[in-house]
Structures are given as structure tokens and as C-alpha cells.
Protein 1
Amino acid sequence: MKQQQTDYRLGAVSFLNTKPLIEGLAGEPGVQLELAVPAELAGMLQAGCVDAALVPVIDIGRAGGRWKRISDAGIGSNGDTLTVQVFSRVQPENMTTLHADTHSHTSVILAQLVWKGFHRRPLTVVPLKPETGVKQCESVLLIGDKVVGADVGSFQYRVDLGGAWRAWTGLPFVFAAWAAPVDRETSRLAQLLSQARDRGVARAAELAVEHGPALRWPVDLARDYLTRLMKYTITPAAEAGMNKFLELARVEGLIPKPGVLVK
């Protein structure tokens, strides 16, 4: 039997919020799908392990023009996210140190920018190590599926970073976008990614039922999350928010080049 040719090796996020973006891709002829946490995907793309990946937006900025955004599909919000949250035992304006889940490069930088720009207080970020329990932290950033069901009842304050960004800038936020090397021809791939997104958005409520329980999500919460909170199209307003985020990161010295995405 002739082995099927692989045209595209794609890296995508393993969290529930990505299911609408990859709907049907695993069954597409010539597509090989690899799942990982967000922070690993940039390294996979850089090493050539995948041809394109759903990478944290901050990593596109850090790539210095070596990558391009190849689709208007992405993971974003127009306010609260539910799954990108800071929990604290002190008032947000009094925080100085943040233990951070480093699975999302974008969320860590977003927290630093929000605290410096909105709360007028710089944050020292400390990686949250496995041996450091959440209960031992004064303040902690958690992302993704682990936020649901996390034992955070002892924290008096919580800040949803998507909502905080919206309150500060008035703009939507984009956490991750599809990217590929700038010299790669991606027109057919872009079409496949848009079609997958459109299928997934149309089936978002069903995907919550299919995937939520296995990832420890209550179905009703997963349905609300995928159908209302998460945004999967990078609109002009979302692109403005994305570029503002990258520009702020550049001003703070967190990315080396001006943060305007190569199209």
C-alpha cells in the first residue's frame, strides 16, 4: 500500500480552546497534526519539526520577521477569557511578584504589561515550578484547562487578563495565531485553516460536549467558553490589539524588533 504523502506538518495547542481551530484537520489528506502546550510550539516551528504552528503571538514578534502570520484564524478574546487568570492574596495594585505558569509566553508578557501600564507597578515574574504548590504562592498566573477546577478558593483577588487588557486599551486581545516561515508558500494551507476554523465555530457547542469532560470541564461551562468567550477570527480590531501588544512589548525591551506582523 502506498504511504500517504504529508504536505503539511502542523503544530497546535493541546487545550480545549483550540478544538474549534483544528476541527477536521487530522482527517485532511496530507495533514499531520502535532499537539503541544503553547510555549513548546515556537521551538517546534523554529527547529523545523512542523511547517506551521499555532504559536503565542509574542513569539511571532520575537521571531524578528522570520515568520509570517498565515491566516485570520487564531485564539483571542474581546474581554474575559476564563482561562488566563491571575489569582492573588493581595490587592492587584499591591502585587510585586507573580508566580507564572510558563506554558504561555504571551500570557506572561501580558501580565507584566498590564501591571506596569494599568496598575502602575512592575512585576517580578517567577516560574511556577511543579514542586511549588499554588497554595504557597502570594500571587499566581494560571492558564488553559488547568484553571478549571484549580484549588484557588484561598485567593481573595482574581484578574482575568483578557478583561484587564480590554479595560486598559479598549481592544480585543489575540493570544495565538497560525505562523509559518516567511518564505513558505501558504495559500492552500491558509484556506485549509480557515475552513477548519469555520467548521469548528459552527460545531463549537458540540465540541464542548465531545472534548470538555475528558479535559475535566463541566459541559455547560465548556459550551459557554467555546461559543461566547473565545474568539477565533482575527478581525481588524483584534489585529490592532495584537499590534498594540507587540509594540508595548517592544517598548519594554521584551521583543527585539518593531512589533508589526508580516502578512
Note: The first helix runs from residue 38 to 46.
Protein 2
Amino acid sequence: VNPLLVQPACTGADCDQTLAYRVLRISSNSPAVNAATGTYSSVLLDFEGQARAGTKDIGADEYSASGIALIGALGDENVGPDAVSYRYTYSIGGVLPVTLINFNTAYKDGKAQLSWQSLNEVGVKQYEVEWSNDGRSYKKIATVAANGSGSYSAEHSGLSTGRNFYRLRILDQDGKSAYSPVRMIVTGNNVEIHLYPNPATHFVMIDFGRSVAMPVDISIINAAGKMVQQQVRKVNGATKVNVGELPSGIYQLQIIQNGILLQSRSFTIVK
């Protein structure tokens, strides 16, 4: 069976000279898309750090129109004392003139709170927020016009009990579009967190507001998509996480329970 692999166009100067460019990825019409027979609930990311939601694809690669690879083959510029963070972007449907820095979700007062930040919004028309209760069929729930500020938000009040999937469709003035990574909120067993101080230097406090029934995994991901800290805790109220040994930069803190990503928050470390 032909897996219908493609070598998508990449974004950035000399990106076609990187090791990541040589990687073939599955296309939207590949027979591997949504073809896995098992659920594999503990498998949340593919080999490039992209979300694997709903029915998973066969193999190590999950089809993603967003084209933001957080993990991959490192080039010379990614190692050594002057290394730059690994980030490789590509587009199967065409290159969009925008870089999505982060896309966060939170559950508060019965609503999904979504926020995202972007750079280089040249020619971007709008962001369309899409929601799904199965990770396969998505419905547009909001349209946010691009205004050049780079910071946006939206909310959704029609959540289903259980898993709720969210993604952004980024549309430019020429009609080209691409998708963000998928984020998930689980209702019925929600963990609402507050993270402070932000920026942080030596530690961050995670305020859960209540006791969590089961232990949770607390993971910290750096800008290159690498997990730099992980611990399991049974929390009650607020808990302190030391980050004094981590260098300055932007990080993602993830709260995972039973293999399900409950919450994700961005924070900055400044030394």
C-alpha cells in the first residue's frame, strides 16, 4: 500500500538545507490517516511533538496541517554554547505568513477559555476557532479578525461532557489556510489552575483551587519541545515547583492525568 508521503514546503530562510526538511510526512489523503485500530490513550504526541487526538494515524507521524515541528533532527545551529531553539515549520497546503507562538486552553465557570499569540502577521485575515467532541469532525465556533496585535482570545460555552478538542484555522488574505496544533479540555473531571509568579525566577506556584482526586503528572516543556522537568504529585490546593535550574526562556507547563492533558499554561523564566 502506498502511504502517500510528501515533502512539504518549509518556512524560513534556507529551511530546505536543514535535516528536518529531508523528513517525509504523510499527506491528507494518506491511507494511514485515522487508520489506527487501537485507542492508545497514553500516546499524546507524534515523533515531532504534534498532538495525536481522536482516532490516531498509523505510524510515528500524525498528519498535521499546522506544520509546527517541536521535536526533530538537530542541525549544527541547534547545538553548542550559541545554540538556537529547535523549531521547524512547514505547510502541506502552502506557507502562511505567520508564526504561532502558543495556543492555550483553560476551563473556567463552565466555559472554555482559549488564547493564542503569533508573530509576523503579514497578510493574515482571521483566525477561526474550531471545536470537536470526537477529534475528527470540527465545527467553527468563532471568528477572530487579525489586527496585528499578536495576542487573541475566544471562549466557548457549549462544551460536551468528556473530551472537547479545539484548533485554530489560520486564514490569510489570499485564501490559504493552515491549522494549529489541537488542544483538549476534559469536562466532568476538570482541573482549573492558576500559575504564578509569571515571569518566574526560582519557582512557580500552581494553584489548583481544590484537591485532585488522583495524582497528576506535572511536566515542563521548553521552547524546543523538549521535556525538561517531570514529576508526579497528589496535590491539594497550591503546590510549588522549583525552576531555578532552568535557563531563561518561554516554557509550557502541562498537567496530565491518566494520559489525558488537562491543562497547559505558558510561562516565562527570567534570570
Note: The chain has no helices and 20 strands.
Protein 3
Amino acid sequence: MLWLEGVQASKSSSFSINYVVKQVFSDFSPVTAESSAESSPRIPRQPAQKETAAEDHGHSEEIHELSTHLRSLVQNKNHSYRLQSYPHCFVGENAIEKLKQSGMAESSNDAIGRMNELLKAEKIFNVIDIGNTEFSKGYCLYRFQEDVNIMQAEENLCDGITLEDVESVLRSELKPRTRRNGLQNHCNSILGIEAVNVLCKNQCVKDRQSAVLVCQVFVDSGFFTAVDNQPKFRDGMTLFKIQQEQQVIQERELSRVSSVTSDIQ
């Protein structure tokens, strides 16, 4: 009798377990592609980046050309402000007029926009209020960062060495060749560390930090161009392309003609 009751209890517990399992799995319906598409929320596609690397490079070149052209137009000299003298500066309102006269700006507002682009790119800065990144009308003094870099570089050259001497050393000692950066080959390129080593080896500079300051001048002038389009020279494995000598001569001649034309006007 006891054995029969045990068998019945076992059957009852087995039945209850099977019932529970069926109930659990009955809650899950098979997922199809259509049901998944209907139930899951649609994730919006991320918009493509507005600027490509080529566009960034083109914009950098445009800013560099604007800075170079403006530098040949304005009178970069010593100016006084509130009984204090500031060397190597130009007056903001004069720059606005020069941009309009040269055709690089259609109106004063357009010229102010171009000046703000130079401020944002750190090509120029406000001498009176260095932290001010918005162009100010009126008698406000500005300085080209390139001029600051030149002054710092000349202070770090060894005695009797000029920037022209440095350029000659770089052209004669550096051995540019085609190098690979990622998936792209870059012809006529050198490493930043190679330029620094050449200047230190030929005793053109006091130390490696001085060499970086000097090489920055050649980045500003376009002699060196980083393949990643960064405006700062780096002592390391960064690739830089060297400007061809004939191109340098042509740009210098164009700059000289622009300067003479500006003086005549």
C-alpha cells in the first residue's frame, strides 16, 4: 500500500514538473526576421563626417596662403600702445583695409571673418590681450606667430649661424626618399628626428629643443610639410615632405613682388 502511494506521488511530481516546463517554453515564440524588425527599434544611421582628410588639408593650405599673403601686405613694425612699445606688430584695422584692397575680402565683415580664421588657426594673436581669440576693430595690435617663431629660432642658433645657413645644411645633409605611412607612400619625405640630428651634428643649434624651434620656422614657411597636416614640428618619427627648391624660389619671388606692390600702393 505504501509502495503504491509512493509511485502515485512520483507520477504526480513528474506531471507537475512537465507542466511547468511547458508553461515556461510556451511564453517564448520563435523569432523571425520580420518579428525582430517589428519589435526592435530602428537605430538611426550616423551621419558621415562632413570634412574628409583631403578637405582638411585644403583648408590648412588656404589658411597658410591667407597668412602668407597678409604678412606681405601689412606693415609689420614697432607700434606703441599706452606708452608701451610692441615690436613686430601690425594694426588690425589696417589689415582689414589691405584684405579688401587686395581682393581677398569683399567687405569689412568678410575681412573680419578671415581674420578670425587666422586667430582660430593660431596664425596671429592679439598682442595687447593674448587670450582674446575674437578679432577686435579699431587700433588693436596683432602679431604673426611666424614672426615669434623666427625670433625664438634666431635666439637659439649658434654664433655666426643664420636661418639661410640652416636651410643650406638641411638641403645638403638630409636624404629624402619615399616612405610608407600606414597604407600610403610619401615621396620626397624625411623623419623629424633626422632633421634634428642634422642640425645638432652640424652645430647649427645649441640643443635638440633649439633644433625643434628652428625647424618650426621651416614648417611655417612651407619648407617642411607634415604628412598628417599638423602645424607643429615634432622631434620623432613623424614624416615631413620637403619643398622643392625651385618652388621655394618661386614663392619668395611672388612674396617680394607682392611686398613691392603693397609699398607702391
Note: Residues 2-26 form the longest helix (25 residues).
